[in-house]
């Protein structure tokens, strides 16, 4: 994965004359098992390093969202780097692993439709990758709490809002979508200038909506029914900015 390579500081170690990881230099055939084992060991080490980074970010966000914290702990650099960490690994590791549509980093059109690509969708078997996904979900869940205690600059809010919309157009990431639902609603409610940007992001991405039966109506209502997750998102965005006027009780005149 490109995210694994970038996080670990470059491509896997290549043997002399090798032109592409996992292939022999002359015949472009798969390398012997020992070299494939080296690549697996490299990827495992990279995923472990990502997981440690995620744990550190979670610890930092738990501190930031604790009650009665001094203003000195709200370092913009820490928040921004954590947001960039989440965005990078969602784009380069999580989305390609959970949704085949995002598996091609260059976005090449190989003649297959989005629907046909998603027919072969499978859940990732790598336990470290699944663990990274769970850590990212936990980080996304913590950001709405941070929004309520610290005002963020517009440039950072823009990055977070873009990140909060993207999961709704990826298959097999239901828990991430629920976390993003709360995050997107929080931004929409607190930052009026970003409302139009969020709506534009949603409507411009509708063509990539999950279409499989398993992911089509994944948001369960209180009455037992179900709707699309993006429908729930739009409804909650509308509801969060509506202010219901208070109705004054009519006072009965004396002697009535």
Q: Major beta sheet, specifics?
A: 2 strands, antiparallel
**Can you tell me the residue ranges where pLDDT is under 50 for at least 5 consecutive residues?**
7-34
Estimated share of beta-strand residues = under 5%
* Class from helix and strand fractions: mainly alpha
Average the pLDDT over all residues and give the rounded result. Answer: 80
How large is the radius of gyration?
23 Å
End-to-end separation in angstroms reads 78 Å
Number of beta strands:
2
Which overall shape is indicated by the principal axes computed on the Cα atoms? globular
H-E order: HHHHHHHHHEEH
Number of helices: 10
Fraction of helical residues: 55-70%
Spatial order of the strands forming the largest sheet: 1-2
What do you see in this structure?
By secondary structure, this protein is an all-alpha fold. It has helices at 2-7, 33-64, 76-98, 114-118, 127-149, 154-165, 174-190, 195-204, 213-216, 229-240; strands at 219-220, 226-227. A two-stranded antiparallel ribbon has the order 1-2. The radius of gyration is 23 Å and the shape is globular. 25% of the residues are buried. Residues 7-34 have low confidence and may be disordered.
Question: Could you give a quick summary of the protein structure above?
Answer:
The protein is mostly helical and 256 residues long. It has helices at 2-7, 33-64, 76-98, 114-118, 127-149, 154-165, 174-190, 195-204, 213-216, 229-240, and strands at residues 219-220, 226-227.
Q: In terms of topology, how is this protein built?
A:
Elements lengths: L1 H6 L25 H32 L11 H23 L15 H5 L8 H23 L4 H12 L8 H17 L4 H10 L8 H4 L2 E2 L5 E2 L1 H12 L16
Antiparallel strand pairs: 1-2
Helix pairs in contact: 2-3, 2-5, 3-5, 3-6, 5-7, 6-7, 6-8, 7-10
């Amino acid at each position: 994965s490109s995210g694994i390579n970038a996080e670990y500081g470059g491509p896997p170690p290549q043997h002399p004359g090798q032109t592409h990881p996992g292939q022999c230099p002359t015949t472009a055939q798969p390398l012997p098992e020992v070299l494939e084992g080296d690549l697996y060991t490299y990827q495992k080490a990279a995923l472990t390093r990502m997981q440690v980074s995620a744990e550190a970010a979670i610890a930092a966000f738990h501190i930031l969202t604790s009650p009665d914290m001094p203003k000195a702990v709200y370092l913009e650099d820490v928040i921004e780097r954590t947001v960039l960490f989440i965005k990078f690994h969602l784009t380069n590791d999580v989305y390609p692993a959970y949704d085949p549509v995002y598996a091609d980093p260059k976005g090449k059109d190989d003649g297959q439709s989005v629907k046909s690509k998603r027919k072969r969708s499978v859940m990732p078997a790598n336990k470290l990758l699944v663990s990274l996904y769970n850590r990212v979900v936990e980080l996304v869940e913590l950001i709405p709490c941070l929004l309520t205690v610290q005002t963020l600059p517009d440039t950072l809010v823009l990055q977070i809002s873009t990140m909060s919309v993207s999961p709704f157009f990826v298959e097999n990431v239901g828990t991430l979508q629920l976390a993003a639902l709360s995050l997107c609603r929080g931004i929409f409610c607190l930052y009026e200038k970003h409302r139009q940007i969020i709506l534009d992001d949603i409507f411009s991405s509708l063509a990539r909506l999950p279409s499989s039966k398993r992911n089509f109506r994944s948001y369960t209502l209180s009455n037992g029914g179900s709707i699309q997750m993006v429908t729930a998102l739009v409804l909650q965005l509308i509801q969060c900015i509506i202010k219901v006027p208070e109705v004054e009780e009519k006072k009965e005149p004396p002697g009535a």
